[in-house]
Amino acid sequence: MIVVENLHKSFDGTPVLKGISTTFEKGKTNLIIGQSGSGKTVFLKSLLGLFTPEEGNIIYNGITYSEMDDDQKRELRQQMGMVFQGSALFDSMSVQENVMFPLKMFSKAPLSEMQDRVDFVLNRVKLTDAHHKFPSEISGGMQKRVAIARAIVNKPQYLFCDEPNSGLDPKTAIIIDNLVQEITQEYDITTVINTHDMNSVMEIGEKIVFLKDGHKAWEGSNKEIFRTDNEAVTNFVYSSELFKKVRQMYIEERN
Length: 255
Ligand SMILES: Nc1ncnc2c1ncn2[C@@H]1O[C@H](COP(=O)(O)OP(=O)(O)OP(=O)(O)O)[C@@H](O)[C@H]1O
Fold this sequence. Notes:
The chain has ten helices and ten strands. It is an alpha/beta fold. Strand 9 and strand 10 form a beta hairpin. Bound molecules: adenosine-5'-triphosphate. The site of adenosine-5'-triphosphate (ATP) has 10 residues, from helix 1. One of its GO terms (molecular function) is ATP hydrolysis activity.
């Protein structure tokens, strides 16, 4: 579980995050949404410990980041898995080498044990015969699966995904969303996903934090987002004609 309290982050005196407080629970897919420039990436990077906030706290399973010593911070980093935008696989490494990479970095286990773990996670993301292929030889959806396998290979407590669906067709995107949600529930991970994708919001948005100009303008679930009258949210969600129709249908159904 991650608790965020009054988080402030600025660059060269320009505030980007302006006092965000929220909670991301274990076993749930938590989504950060908002317009371009609203601060989603800065927020996600702050959760990853890549930015130091000027004010506020981030509390990981009860321990405040700013109060952790170096060993605790190192341990926390090992508990974090990350799926980057565009997968960010190493082109010169095979699928299994990509997945083994974080294991080799953090674990002193014998190679056979690491291989078993790699086989297990590749199997879990339903990639059974791609071990020796290179990223350029597999589809975008398969690359995402490899990225997910690599992110979970160290049994993380926290999983962060930056635009996990970018570049995927809608059908593949839903499959990847569902995979992330299943893994989150199965291994009781605290998952935080930065997304633009309204299909993801509908499909897996168990908790959604909507950012506007560095503030948390709204939070709730995918069931609540289509019912809210919050103007900032409705302007964002219904900028798409499709979702305007969905809302109209809902209002007609309600009346
Ligand atoms: N390292 C940085 N140094 C200075 N300013 C930054 C830095 N990172 C982000 N910003 C600024 O912070 C603001 C929020 O950026 P951020 O990337 O978090 O937006 P975003 O909501 O993720 O947008 P997008 O959806 O386009 O990725 C922007 O004005 C950006 O220019």
